[in-house]
C-alpha cells in the first residue's frame, strides 16, 4: 500500500509532502519520489491531507464486561478508530472488575474479535476496587495487563498504595492513580466555585485531588515505581508534579481535552453532560493545565472516554453518573482551539497524542519511522463540521461540545496497515 501526497510533520515541525510505503503492516519507506513499480501497487491519494502516527489514548472506559448498555469493546473500538486512535488502554472499573487474569484475557479476546484498534487492558490495584486487598500483580502482568489502577476511585489507604507500588516496581510495571480523597468529595457533583454556589450544590475542592497526588509522589520516591497521575485538573497537582520531576522522581501525568478547554464558569445549567470526574475547575486551573502540558509537566493527552446512556444522564446534575465521551472530538477540539488559533504548534499536539504516550508506556508505535507498525491517521485540517452526537460511533452521546464548529477531523485510520475507519 502506498499513501501518496501526504502532508507529514518533519523533525523541526515543518510540513512536507511525502509518500508512505506500507508492506505487511509495517512502514517500509517514507519517500519524496515514487518509482514506477510502486505507482502500480495499491495507491491511496492523500491529496495533501495531514498524515500522522495513529493517536494513542491511555485512559478510556469501554464498559465491557458488565455495562454493555453504555458501550462495548467493539463499539468503543469503532468510536476510537473514527476519532483517529489506533491504540487505547481501557480502565478496569467494569463488572466484574478487571482484577483477575480471566477478565484481562476476556478483554483481549473481545478486542481481537472486534478487529479494529489495539486495546491494552489495565488491571485493578485492589480486588473489586474496594481498597481492601491487593490483586495478584504478577499473574495479571502475565495475562497481559499493562499497568495497575483503581481508576474511578482513589486508593484511600497510604499503606495499601505503598505496598502496591513496591510490588509493581519489582515487576517493572507502572501504577496509574485516580487521585481523590473520598472524605472531601462525598455527595458533591461539581467543583467548588461560582457554579456550585449559584446552584446551591456541594463542591469538590481542589485539594481532594492534590492531597493524593502529593501523597503518592512521596510513596513513588520511596518505592522507585513509575507513578502515573490520571486526568490532572488542578493547579496544585500541576505544581506538585512539576516539583517531583525537577528532583528526579519517576512521575508522569496526563490531561484531558475538557480540562484544557472548559472551566466551571462555562457550565450552562444543570445539564449532566457537563458532569465529569474530576469536575471542571476554575479558569486558573485550566491555565495551569495548559502551561503544564506546554512545558512537559503533563506528558500526554488522554480522553477519559466515559460513555453513559441517555437515561442515566437524564437524572440530572446531582444523580447522573460522572463522565463524557471523548474519542471522536478530541483531536478536532484541540486542533481548532489551540493550533488553528496559533497558540500551539501542530507538532506539539501530535507529539502529546502519539510519541509521548508511546514513550511513557514503552509502546512500539507512535511514529512514522521505517520499521514502525503502520498505525496511521489521515486528517483533514480544513473542512469544518459541527459536533453532532447523533453521528457518533460510540453508544454514548454524553458530550458538552454539541454544536461546536471544529476543523481537524480524521478521515481514515489504519491499524497495522489495515483500514479500520474511513469517512467515505
Q: Features of this protein?
A:
424 residues; 14 helices; 30% helix; four-stranded mixed beta sheet; single chain; 19 strands; globular
What are the SSEs and their pairings?
Layout: E1 2-9, E2 15-23, E3 26-31, H1 36-39, E4 43-45, E5 50-53, E6 55-60, H2 73-82, E7 85-90, H3 101-114, E8 118-121, H4 137-143, H5 158-170, E9 175-177, E10 190-191, H6 194-199, E11 203-204, H7 207-223, E12 227-229, H8 235-246, E13 251-255, H9 257-261, H10 283-295, E14 300-301, H11 310-313, H12 330-339, H13 346-353, H14 355-360, E15 376-380, E16 385-386, E17 405-406, E18 409-415, E19 418-422
Parallel strand pairs: 1-4, 6-7, 7-8, 9-12, 10-11, 12-13, 13-14
Antiparallel strand pairs: 1-2, 2-3, 5-15, 15-18, 16-17, 18-19
Describe this structure in words.
The protein is an alpha/beta fold and 424 residues long. Helix content is 30%, strand content 20%. The protein contains 14 helices and 19 strands. The chain has helices at residues 36-39, 73-82, 101-114, 137-143, 158-170, 194-199, 207-223, 235-246, 257-261, 283-295, 310-313, 330-339, 346-353, 355-360; strands at residues 2-9, 15-23, 26-31, 43-45, 50-53, 55-60, 85-90, 118-121, 175-177, 190-191, 203-204, 227-229, 251-255, 300-301, 376-380, 385-386, 405-406, 409-415, 418-422. Strands 3-2-1-4 form a four-stranded mixed sheet, with no helix packed on it. The protein has a four-stranded antiparallel sheet with strand order 5-15-18-19, covered by helices on one side. Strands 9-12-13-14 form a four-stranded parallel sheet. α3 links the parallel β7 and β8 (118-121). α7 (207-223) runs parallel beside α8. The protein is globular, with a radius of gyration of 21 Å. The mean pLDDT is 97.
Amino acid at each position: 500500500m502506498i499513501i501518496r501526497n501526504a502532508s507529514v510533520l518533519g523533525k523541526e515541525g515543518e510540513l512536507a509532502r511525502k509518500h508512505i510505503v506500507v508492506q505487511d503492516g509495517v512502514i517500509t519507506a517514507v519517500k519524496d519520489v515514487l518509482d514506477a513499480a510502486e505507482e502500480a501497487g495499491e495507491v491511496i491519494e492523500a491529496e495533501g491531507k495531514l498524515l500522522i502516527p495513529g493517536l494513542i489514548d491511555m485512559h478510556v472506559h469501554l464498559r465491557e464486561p458488565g455495562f454493555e448498555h453504555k458501550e462495548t469493546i467493539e463499539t468503543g473500538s469503532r468510536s476510537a478508530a473514527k476519532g483517529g486512535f489506533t491504540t487505547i488502554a481501557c480502565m478496569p472499573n467494569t463488572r466484574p472488575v478487571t482484577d483477575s487474569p480471566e477478565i484481562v484475557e476476556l478483554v483481549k479476546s473481545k478486542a481481537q474479535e472486534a478487529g479494529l484498534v489495539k486495546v491494552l487492558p489495565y488491571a485493578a490495584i485492589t480486588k473489586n476496587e474496594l481498597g481492601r486487598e491487593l490483586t495478584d500483580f504478577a499473574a495479571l502482568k502475565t495475562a497481559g495487563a499493562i499497568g495497575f489502577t483503581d481508576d474511578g476511585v482513589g486508593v484511600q489507604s497510604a499503606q495499601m498504595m505503598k505496598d502496591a507500588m513496591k510490588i509493581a516496581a519489582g515487576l517493572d510495571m507502572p501504577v496509574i492513580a485516580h487521585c481523590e480523597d473520598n472524605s472531601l468529595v462525598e455527595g458533591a457533583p461539581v467543583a467548588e466555585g461560582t457554579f456550585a454556589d449559584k446552584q446551591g450544590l456541594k463542591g469538590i475542592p481542589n485539594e481532594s485531588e492534590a492531597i493524593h497526588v502529593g501523597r503518592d509522589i512521596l510513596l513513588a520516591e520511596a518505592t522507585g515505581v513509575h507513578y502515573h497521575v490520571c486526568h490532572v485538573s488542578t493547579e496544585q497537582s500541576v505544581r506538585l508534579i512539576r516539583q517531583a520531576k525537577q528532583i528526579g522522581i519517576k512521575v508522569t501525568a496526563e490531561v484531558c481535552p475538557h480540562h484544557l478547554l472548559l472551566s466551571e464558569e462555562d457550565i450552562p445549567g444543570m445539564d449532566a453532560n457537563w458532569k465529569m470526574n474530576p469536575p471542571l475547575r476554575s479558569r486558573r486551573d485550566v491555565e495551569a493545565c495548559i502551561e503544564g502540558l506546554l512545558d512537559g509537566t503533563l506528558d500526554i493527552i488522554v480522553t477519559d472516554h466515559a460513555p453513559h446512556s441517555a437515561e442515566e444522564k437524564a437524572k440530572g446534575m446531582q444523580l447522573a453518573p460522572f463522565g463524557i465521551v471523548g474519542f471522536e472530538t478530541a483531536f478536532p477540539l484541540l486542533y481548532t482551539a489551540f493550533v488553528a488559533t496559533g497558540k500551539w504548534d501542530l507538532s506539539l499536539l501530535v507529539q502529546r497524542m502519539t510519541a509521548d504516550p508511546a514513550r511513557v508506556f514503552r509502546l512500539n508505535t507512535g511514529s512514522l519511522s521505517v520499521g514502525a507498525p503502520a498505525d496511521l491517521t489521515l486528517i483533514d485540517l480544513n473542512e469544518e463540521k459541527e459536533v453532532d452526537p447523533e453521528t457518533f460511533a460510540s453508544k454514548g452521546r454524553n458530550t458538552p461540545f454539541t454544536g461546536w464548529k471544529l476543523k481537524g477531523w480524521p478521515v481514515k485510520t489504519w491499524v497495522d496497515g489495515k483500514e479500520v475507519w474511513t469517512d467515505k
